[in-house]
Fold these 3 entries.
Entry 1:
Amino acid sequence: MPHFWDGLLVTLQVLAIGSVISFVLGLVWALLMRVPSRWVTWPVGTVTEFVRNTPLLVQLFFLFYVMPEWGLTLSALTTGVIGIGLHYSTYTMQVYRAGIEAVPVGQWEAATALNLPMRRTWTAVILPQAVRRVVPALGNYVIAMLKDTPILMAITVLEMLGEAQLFARETFQFTEPLTVIGVAFIVISYLASLALRALERRLVH
């Protein structure tokens, strides 16, 4: 398949940048949900619930086809990366919330006893412990994002499966390209799981 590597590169770009967006934005959502003000928690909760409970495909269509009518036009790849990152940030938010709530109360009390500023409490005490606890769960969403990348074909992004289908239509050969893509997804998933396990071990020690 002449364009397999192009599709692989697109898939890896979507996975890498989408993961960063989902991890960072998910943490932002989680921290905002702890603000003691309904003026903050209510809109954040409403938005994240809406995103989490609507299909990713609908969100991609909205970003790609509707937003240009409001003056915001992005490339298909950019739209796909933002869409998948935003969608999964609402799931990583729940993971972070669970990790933060799992930090023992004594850690909060110790930070208070030491008179640490709130920013220092979060960055030096709470978040390092919370993140260590949630790395495996975050890793599961990385794999889920990888498996959702073919959805981006709906907005004309030619990732691995898109390139395989294009090749199949041109040559009328379906077995070879689809088999190669299936193996590629397995290999990428396996390598990603190994990397996440290594990260987990590093954080634990």
Note: The CA atoms of residues 135 and 200 lie 6 Å apart.
Entry 2:
Amino acid sequence: MTGPTTTTRRWRRPRGRVLVIGAVVLAALVVAGVVAALLLPGGGPGRGDDRRGVPGIGLTGEYDELGPGGPGGPGGAGPGRGDRGPRGEEFADAPVLVGTVVSTSEGTLVLTPDGGAQRSLRTTDDTRVRGSGNAALGDLAPGERVVVRVDGTGDAATAVSVTAPQARVTGTVTALAGTSATVVAVDGRTVTVDLAGLGQQPAVGDVVVLTGTITDGVTLTADGVRILPRAS
């Protein structure tokens, strides 16, 4: 006689269930990482230089967050300007000259550096010109303020780039005489502004942001204006 037959059952792991649980856990980790990146300082889109704007130089004011280059204003490079140079050009440790254009000709830029004697710089086809609507050396006007990055010394000094920074002032119009305005800047300086080139004229008492150029070392010739709402 034969004894009773014993049936042996093999245990099988529920592979399908394990895979589903693993996928759910992985998805949860990914979502948690995205949320952390958005909430932590410095994380998420728009938290770096792309949001804050590229720093630059203002000749008559540094209140870019209120100006045409700031939020809600046309043009400009945006708020947060500082140590990078005009229009985002990074000067690093390169030698620079800041001064006023005297003249330009093929291969030569003549300028008067602030506090120094007039000098000539070589220019080449690679010399870059930018800022305030300038794209070539011939666009620079006598008396225009410029920042020049220089390579070489003495007679061999060559202008690598020439930037005409946009002048800007934020303040209150305290007097008008024809197209000439007196503006008291928010930092207390008094600035004379030529308004002749503007289509919209501010009134006495308006708080304004004016942009333009300085060609005589004193007067801001305005080419843009933003009139801020008055407090009631």
Note: Helices lie at 15-39, 49-52.
Entry 3:
Amino acid sequence: MSDALRPMARPRLYEQVLDRLRHHVAEGGLRAGDRLPPERELAGRLGVSRASVKQAIVVLEVQGLVEVRHGGGTYLVRDSLDAEPVEQLVERKRRLPDVLEAREALETKLAELAAERRTPEDLAAMRAALDHMATEIEAGEPGVEGDRLFHAAVTAAAHSALLAEFMRSIAEQITESRNESLRQPGRPHRSLTQHRAILVAIEERRGKAAATAMRRHVRTVAKVRLLDWNPGDDV
């Protein structure tokens, strides 16, 4: 039986607010660093509740498009508010816990094995990755490529073909979790510090310490705004 005549989905009010905010930024020529009007003003101009405006701002914050400074307003992080569809955001939220669980299981073991099996070339690759990440962060970037290179170097240093294949099989999901984590305020510097702790343990051939440091890191990665967001709020 065809579902063409299934009930039509009604856009949540905050999704309509998102659309209006996107047009406001585009038409007003706003750029990164510019401040959005206060929530109370937006609610009045749009004719909606402050709760609807707040939920829309939360969605933009989750996607790294705005920075909310407590007591200081909401500021654009980019030159536009071209947010991904809420449905995609909901799907990403749904699968993220499973990805993070898999990362913790795999990467803690990889770090332990890397401490036991690493070669001078492996260590050089890890150091180069962290140098790259530090350079990215100094340039105001989140350090995504350096992060990727470091975790790839740890995987290679474990010299386990099967575990490396497992990591390749979830590479796309890992990229999502990496991007999600590194857009959190202050996270790039913290991740770099944690990577350095992992490297020290691997250099010193302390397998359990390397596994512990990696576990601590992956659990930090798991602390993202997206997982606190409640997409079911219809305000």
Note: The CA atoms of residues 31 and 88 lie 25 Å apart.
